[in-house]
Amino acid sequence: MNCDEKMREYYDSGIEFKRLTTDIGPLELARTRELMARYLPPSPAVIYDIGGSYGPYSFWLAGMGYRVSLLDAIRLHIERAGKTAEDPAAPRLAGIHVGDARRLPFADDSAEVVILHGPLYHLVDKADRLTAVREAWRVLKPGGLLLAFAISSYASAIVGIRYGHVFNDNYLATCEAEVTTGRHERPAGWRSGGFITTFFHHPSVLTAELREGGFACERVLGVHGPAWNVPDFAASWDNPAHRNVMLQIARLTENEPVLSPHMMAVAWK
Known about the structure:
Layout: H1 3-11, H2 25-39, E1 46-50, H3 58-63, E2 67-72, H4 75-85, E3 95-98, E4 111-116, H5 119-122, H6 126-139, E5 140-151, H7 155-163, H8 169-181, E6 183-184, E7 198-199, H9 203-212, E8 216-222, H10 233-238, H11 240-252, E9 262-268
Parallel strand pairs: 1-2, 1-4, 2-3, 4-5
Antiparallel strand pairs: 5-9, 6-7, 8-9
Helix pairs in contact: 7-8
């Protein structure tokens, strides 16, 4: 089974539908919206949300007046987005597509913004990632904005320290591989529920790949920062005062993206 097939099998379980509402997902959702809004041009700009899953960001952006087309490789995600779109109260999307980030069904120079959500970590081979980056460059208008999301090459090490997983030799070997090569593999013999084969970036590698794909990369920002490590995350997030502190910590540390599981690169055509 190749990486594309493993990705489809993983997401066909529906696991993505609850990710942003459970565990540390609410922090990721809030901070991703905050960071994207900081750089987006005024509506009604055209936005292509590539790898945008079932549309949690697409519908939010459309609700602000942007002309958003959603594309994802997982048919189950697009089916869910289609059901959401059937609700008369839902914001209108310009398009909903099953597709591949390496072969976008959009015209040259047709969007002000491209968002790459999952492709840069699900495309394990550099050649495939560069193809996706160059496709984003192709469909963007001159001066257009790319917001590219990646997972930190230190993510498993940070998670493993928090939960004590690093004392398992197979888990530690996975951390070492991520830091030295970027490649993430589920640790040998590890319990079910771990992530599939993916590529985790150091910020410098992410910047270099975007530049190689033709972009001027302005900066890479941490999404969560270390704020997700608070004791009893759910209780802290439900406390408005604690939630504000967590968001403030994420903002204070955003320029050190290696502290965060997820990163957002800001780049321009």
